[in-house]
Each structure stands twice: as structure tokens, then as C-alpha cells.
Amino acid sequence: NAGVMQNPRHLVRRRGQEARLRCSPMKGHSHVYWYRQLPEEGLKFMVYLQKENIIDESGMPKERFSAEFPKEGPSILRIQQVVRGDSAAYFCASADLDTQYFGPGTRLTVL
Amino acid sequence: QKEVEQNSGPLSVPEGAIASLNCTYSDRGSQSFFWYRQYSGKSPELIMFIYSNGDKEDGRFTAQLNKASQYVSLLIRDSQPSDSATYLCAVNRNSGNTPLVFGKGTRLSVIA
Lengths: 111, 112
What we know:
heterodimer, A: mainly beta, seven-stranded mixed β-sheet, four-stranded antiparallel β-sheet, 11 strands, 0% helix, B: mainly beta, five-stranded antiparallel β-sheet
């Protein structure tokens, strides 16, 4: 399966803990986007990365959230000190040109 | 004004009918337009993309773009119950790799 992979698919954290979400793009794709979808809301852009570079992080909250896409390994979205409002589905998309293909998502629940 | 607007629905059509989904966008400089289908609890799945004014057909799906009116639509012919999903309109404000701006989606229900 050469699709976008995300793990874990479901993640439960208590308030104050850290959440780490991983994304491996499709083979041959070097562009990774992270989006967040709150219940009953549309998809909202968070951050756009290429290997070892953050290209656009305009949609990411300034505090507690960070992202990376190292030379080797998956892209990681990290949420520190999670709060209940962080509960959402987090989707990663990879692209070669301008067409983005989504992974299955990580559903984060903060208790 | 929201950047990408869609009627939230639900849009109900009988099986075999044509479903028409509409989307308007505010940024006149937008370059690329995408339709994604999202089943409940699943991730968005690319249905079609369109860059130029006019119609683009792929099987039972037709995307229509009118840049002058800042309007893009998706027609689904011979609708099936399996087409019941939320359809997301997405706009790329620049050519190449840039973030997509999504509408909130239209829920389509195809009644058997």
C-alpha cells in the first residue's frame, strides 16, 4: 500500500499530557500538510512542511504545537500539554505537485 | 465573507437522479479547485480537480468552474446510495504546492 500512512489511528490523552502524531507521505512525495477537523467543522490548515523545512505554519497555534519532517522518518505533529479543545481529527496530506492525498487521520481524544 | 462557502445540506436526492453540489469562493486569484468526498468517520478522498473554466467529466462526476462568477460545482449523475457522504470543496489560492482552503462541506443523502 503506497498511500499516506498515519499513526496512531486513535489516541487518548489526559489533560496536560503530550500527543505525538506521525505521518508518512506517499512514496515519491516530499510535501506534507497537516489539517485539523473539529466536530461538525471543516478542515483547517495547520502547517506545511518539506523535508527538514517548515514552509508555512500560519495555521498552527503559536503555543503547545510544533511540527517537523526530518530527513529520515515520518513527519511528526506534537501537541504539548493537551487540553480538551485539542480533541479533533488530525489529517495529514501528501502532495507531489498541487494535488493533495489524505491519510486516514488520527482521532485525538483528550479526557 | 467566508473564503469557501458551501450549503451544509443535507441535500436529499432519489437514487438515479442527478445531485448538484455548489461552492463559491472569495479569492478571485484562486487557481485550482478540488472536490473531496468524506464518509462519516473517514478521511477525505479526492474525487476531482479542475483548473480551467468549463466542464470536466470523469465517469459519473462532472466538475464545472466559472472563474468570473467565482463558482465551482460538482454534478453526480445516476446517484447511488453509496454516494451518500459529505462533499468538500477546496481551493488552492496559488498554483503549485500551497495549503488548501476548505468549505465546511455539503451532506448528500441518496435515497433508495
